[in-house]
Amino acid sequence: QLVESGGGSVQPGGSMTLSCAASGFTLSSHCMGWFRQVAGKGREGVAVIDKDGGLNYVDSVKARFTISKDNANHILYLQMNSLKPEDTAMYYCAIRVTAGAWRCSPTTIERDGYWGQGTQVTVS
Cα–Cα distance between 17 and 36 in angstroms, integer? Predict the structure, then answer.
């Protein structure tokens, strides 16, 4: 089970941290990521972290967002700074069900992912 929290409303330039509590998974064995979706548009991979802590970000959030995880407590985080109105979306955490170190990317998570219910982030 994946349960996101930490969403809400914030002014442009503000910060927010999203959390995703993961039960039933060993985070040190799985690729994980954060995605976002605006109503009527496709889902976008924002950031991914592989089982060993390797990171990758979509260009639009580089230097502003940081993905991290706490393996011991089974929590995935997304620290978001310098938020912009265009960051407004529903944010989802996801975990690639198949464990392993092979290519960790939004695409591989989309193909084999388990998803949380989402948390809304509004920047205005």
Answer: 14
The string of pLDDT tens digits covering residues 67-78 is 999 999 999 999
**Sign of dihedral through CA atoms 22, 106, 99, 56?**
negative
Closest alpha carbon to 21 in 37, 6, 45, 4? 4
Which residues, in sequence order, are bridge partners of residue 56? 48
Q: What pLDDT, in 10s, does the model give residues 34-77? A: 999 999 999 999 999 999 999 999 999 999 999 999 999 999 99
Count of alpha carbons within 13 angstroms of residue 85, beta-carbon side: 1
SS3 59: helix
Q: Kindly report each contact of residues 56-61 with a partner whose C-beta sits within 8 Å and lies 24 or more positions away, as own/partner.
A: 56/104, 56/105, 60/86, 61/87
DSSP per position, 105-122: SHHHHHHSEEE---EEEE
